Amino acid sequence: MADLGRAALVVSLGLSVYALVAGATAAITSRRRLATSARNALFCCFGSTLIAAVVLASALVRHDFSFTYVAQHTNRTLTTPYALSAFWGGQEGSLLLWLLVLTGYGSLAVALNRKLLRDLTVWVVPVLAGIGTFFAFVLVAVASPFGTQTAPLDGNGLTPSLQNPYMVAHPPMLYLGYVGLSIPFAFAAGAMLSGRTDERWIVATRRWTLAAWAFLGFGQLLGAHWAYVEVGWGGYYAWDPVENAALMPWLAATAFLHSVMIQERKGMLKVWNMVLVALAFELSVFGTFLTRSGVVNSIHSFSKSPIGSWFLAFVVISTVFSLALIMWRLPLLKARTKLESALSREATFLYNNLLLVALCLTVLWGVLFPIVTQVFKGETRTIGRPYYDFFLRVFGLPLLLLMGIGPLIAWRKASFRGLVKLLAWPIAVSILCGVALVLVGAGSSKPGLIAYTFSSFVLATIVLELVRGTRAVGSVFTLISRNRRRYGGYVVHAAIVLLAIGIAGSSAYGTSTRARLTPGQSVSVAGYTLSLRDVRRTQVPNATETRAVFDVGGRWHGTLASGDNQYIFPPEPSREVGIKTSWTRAEDLYVIADDVNVKTHVVFVQVLVKPLVNLIWVAGIVFLLGAGIALWPDAREQRRLVTRLAPAQA
Amino acid sequence: MSILLGLLLAAIAVLLVALPFLREPVTADDRLEAPDAEEDRRRGLLEDRDRALAALKELELDHRAGKIDDADYRELIGPQRREAAAALRALQRRYGNEMTAFETPDLPPEPTPPPDEGSPPTPVPVPEPYPPPDEATIPQE
Fold first, then answer.
1. Which conformational region is residue A527 in: left (phi greater than 0), alpha (psi within -120 to 50 degrees), or beta?
2. Taking CA atoms, which of A341, A391, A541, A590 is between 20 and 30 Å from A179?
3. Where are the domains of chain B?
4. Structural contact between residues B83 and A266, judged by C-beta atoms closer than 8 angstroms
5. How large a percentage of chain A has pLDDT more than 70?
6. CA dihedral defined by A213, A215, A217, A221, rounded to 10 degrees?
7. Res. B123: pLDDT tops 70
8. For residue B53, what are the CA distances in angstroms to A81, A479, B87, B123?
9. Shortest alpha-carbon distance between residue B96 and chain A (Å)
10. Scanning every residue of chain A, which has its alpha carbon at the shortest distance from the alpha carbon of B27?
11. pLDDT higher than 50, residue A441
């Protein structure tokens, strides 16, 4: 069957090259049949890639170790879901997933828009095919998942830390986000190539961008939860280069989602939007480059591989292509109106954009710094957490504040008097909240206090908006259903506020202590007392489990166990933490038994109490809800758009 | 077997890609249909109309909800209404009533009394953004 997979990938490569060349020729020479042929080639490319994916998935499920990839990433002890998750657990498989999602998304986007946006999709096909050609080439010539060997009795198995339910969902979710950003990029490039830079490309890709952004955001939260429960260092985000690789395109896409509203409303920021959509796409490919090349040290990155240089070349070529296109079409991207006032909705969107892009570029510099120092100084210097935390406060706190102010300001021009009147209630609420927090002792962390005060301000504005809007139209359901993007956006803002409260609470007000314990000894932290009861080692299929068992007293009574698993296939350790979540006290008791000695029964333990950390995971659900509201189709809007665009097909 | 399946896959792909040429081996018109200048102009006018009406709708909603006070509303509504009316007139001049009547909201009346005469305007009902054609009226100026 590996031959079929290889053949399918070769066919995919041939089809994507054909779609690129024939599509570009058809668009330039305006040939109808050739354009349809190129479009069919893109559809077929998805079909053949799907066949390749089915071949690999089937080999994984059947434990067919004659596939080198299957033998490297699975073994017979893995259950079917984990065996399938090895599809994206290795480099070659994840590249195949990239191509599959790209051609699937691309075919669907082109098929849905082929009638209404015929003049645009003619150019979108070769752009998507160009991206597909790169991935198909890498899969055929550099990193094929269909290498074969004499089948061993068993495989190496999946890295233990990846054997977690979150890892079944997190990587494909990120891929749906990363690859989804190719669609707005392809339509933006298509608009510039065709010289038709009106709003149709934005209308066509609005939901694609929103969906990709939602997948990317939710995927990161899934990854954060995985890190929290599985990696076992007590945190959820370490500013690891590969984590940052997913954050950067999300930040760029967030800026794009806001600034595109200004273009729709005012005809402004056309160049800026093109830059942002290209930046989001380039950062998504760059993220894949970081993960796959091994150029940076990360717990997520694969070992050094030959595909890094290919990815770098692709990032450089596609960046030059994007910039050249924007420069070429600058005359068509002139703004139709000007910013009328620095105190207006569009101005706050602009400030929001500048802060988001500044944060994005700051993170990018943090990621690139070790590479730059290695290239120019011959030594690798890394940038640590204080750098990122500092800039997160510098850019993140004003962003939080703007989230509250922006929705209240009128378009065009707002008066200072009117704004003060509008902000009176939210300001009063935030001041009261700040005072209350100081009184309960939360003033120990200034950034935490500011974050909470700003968060209460934003929540107050959101509630006020909902109350006022509901009074105006009669019911909250009518209000939201008539303005889905706006109120879906407010729900997403509420999710970001919950995220900010969770991050501030768990980092600024968390408690941590370390201790060396023998059975009978105890350690106290934040009202909890942990006594080491026992140390035990048990053998389970494919692993030896070592655990320190603690009796917990004080604010909660029960037992927690923490330690490590030593797996047989692959022979790797995995840290196992003990977590007790208390929803009533809104905190987690988190126990890390670092070094458990079964002979001496000595245990080195770290105990953390993390207030409000679970709001981060709740924020993920609220975020999905908000994105869902904004994504939900509005029949009236659809009718209006179809009417506006329909004569274009005549 | 796998090789045969691969060859079959390639053959199907070639067939599907060649389909447009197999269906129409000879054609009198192989040119892609592209919107002409008139089509672009029409689309531009419709975009202007939608943009202006959406802005008007939001302004009305914000005023009714109390987010924009009467003084600010009086200052903003004038230019916004003129923009919307200009977009509708441009469409009407070029394409007649058919184009403008479709999904055009009932525009709110001019605020009375005029801004410089003191008392605030009466908040108007928020229009359905795009009601069916038969419910629509176009402001005549």
1. left
2. A391
3. 36-135
4. no
5. 97
6. 180
7. no
8. 51, 18, 9, 17
9. 15
10. A33
11. yes
